[in-house]
Amino acid sequence: MSKIEVPRRTRSASTSPSAWALSPGRSLPYSSPAPVAPVPKSPASYEKLMKQEAKSGGGGVGGVLKYFLQKKVSPLLEEEYRRFRVVYNRLLQWRFANARAEASMAAVKRVAQKKLFNGWARVCVMRNLMMEKRVLIQKLRHQLKLYHIMNSEMRLLNEWSRLEPKNVEAVGRVVRKLSAISVCLPLVHNAEGDVMSVYDAVSMAMRVMEGIEAMILDMHWQVERTCFLLTELSVMLKQQKQFFQELESSVSVVASLEVQEKSLIVHHIQLVQEVNG
């Protein structure tokens, strides 16, 4: 295969273009535009293109070097490729930075979700504790109300424990009397009784029982009133005892003040006599 001879460029100020002239968007003013090779879209395509060109001149690395020695790449192509590599490197850097940012944001998100869940769990625990405290407070309030109600009724219950034997005895007497009266009725040997007289007797017994009930209610009201008066009287007696104790302390103070007054009067009289004498 014949070698391709490339004419060497002579360095001259008029023919050699400067870096400003070779910048993108600039064309040579006095030279015809040279054919530009197609710009590769990626480094892989560029390497593929270089391999294809190297195969035409010889295989391997030696062929590539021989190719570069024999034929120079266009400066515009080199500039474009350099810019492409810079942009591609920036793209890779941005992708890496975005991946790191996404990973850090995911970690921060996980930490925030964990903290949010822990806060929600603590709030739930606090709500449960508050509900338990409220239930306990409500229970204590009900117990206090029950205690106040039972405390006001305990006195009556204690009094009823003393009155219960008498009440049971009175009810037993009534039951025995009614039993005796019912046993005395002639209900044997085909005995018959007057319906009206029996009705009158039963009605009278009912009226007597109603009267007894009304009397018991009246006595109960009177007993409650009497107990209330006795309670007030006991409270008044306690207050009077306190007042008497305060009065005794005041009397002792007054007696001591009277003794001091007498001693001061005597001392004053002595001073007056000493001044006059």
Would you mind describing this structure in some detail?
There is one protein chain. With 277 residues, this protein is mainly alpha-helical. The protein has a domain at 43-121. It is built from 4 helices and no strands. It has helices at 43-57, 60-70, 75-183, 195-276. Helix 1 (43-57) crosses helix 2 (60-70). The protein is flat. Mean pLDDT is 74; it is low at 1-41.
User: Stretches where pLDDT falls below 50 for ≥5 residues?
Assistant: 1-41
Helix/strand-derived category reads: mainly alpha
Largest sheet: none
**How many strand units?**
0
**Mind telling me the C-alpha Rg?**
63 Å
The helix content is: over 70%
How many separate helices?
A: 4
Distance between the termini: 165 Å
Q: What's the SSE pattern?
A: HHHH
Q: How much of the residues is beta strand, in percent?
A: under 5%
User: What is the averaged pLDDT score?
Assistant: 74
What spatial form do the alpha-carbon principal axes imply? flat
Give structural attributes.
mainly alpha; disordered N terminus; 277 residues
Set out the fold topology.
Blueprint: H1 43-57, H2 60-70, H3 75-183, H4 195-276
Region (Disordered): 1-42
Protein name: QWRF motif-containing protein 7
GO molecular function, one term: microtubule binding
